[in-house]
From TrEMBL:
Keywords: Metal-binding. GO terms for biological process: carboxylic acid metabolic process. This is Oxaloacetate tautomerase FAHD1, mitochondrial. The keyword Phosphoprotein does not apply. GO terms for molecular function: acetylpyruvate hydrolase activity; acylpyruvate hydrolase activity; metal ion binding; oxaloacetate decarboxylase activity; oxaloacetate tautomerase activity. InterPro entries: Fumarylacetoacetase-like_C, Fumarylacetoacetase_C_sf. GO terms for cellular component: mitochondrion. Gene3D superfamilies: Fumarylacetoacetase-like, C-terminal domain. Coiled coil: none annotated. Transmembrane segments: none annotated. It comes from Seriola lalandi dorsalis.
Amino acid sequence: MALRITRNISRFWEWGRKIICVGRNYADHAKELKNAIPTEPVLFLKTPSAYVREGSPILVPLYTSNLHHEVELGVVIGKGGTAIPQSAAMEHVAGYALCLDMTARDIQDECKSKGLPWTLAKAFNTSCPVSEFIPKERIPDPGNVKLWLKVNDQLRQSGCTSQMIFSIPYLISYISDFITLEEGDLILTGTPKGVSAVQEHDELQAGIEDVVTMSFKVDRRDQ
């Protein structure tokens, strides 16, 4: 009998295969970037090498001069599936993580103007800082979670997941219609308004109210 390898979901960033991101899921954020409010989810991907944990820096890619922070609630998938109905979606959630979607905004704007994918703007190494794993029980209502982010102790982003256009059950169902969800996958659910540029040596602090905080320094790749 083949032995099933048991993986530790609380270290999903070490072995999870996909980071599926939802863009423009907060109306005020879509407006601040002069984007239309979507009528269906806008999806893009990050690679597993985007993960970075506290104690290691966020590295600014050499090709950008306008790196932005986006604080988000991440959903960690504990049970895979395809075409998951909304009514069963939360059964597939193992827990959550506080995440940053670091974005090379100048590159994204250039890609958008040319009709090109956002990969270089979104999927570079260290573009997905994540907190410790948050067990599902610690966030009983993921539709009412308060997120915040500070840069050098100045508050830049403050919002609540109740402002999301598409709910977590809807996102899980929608994504799984096209992309099979697997154990260890991470879904980034979008960012509230207030995104702004960060510079080398800045310190980013982010939190989910009453649940978790994390801190990252920004550094620049030297080659």
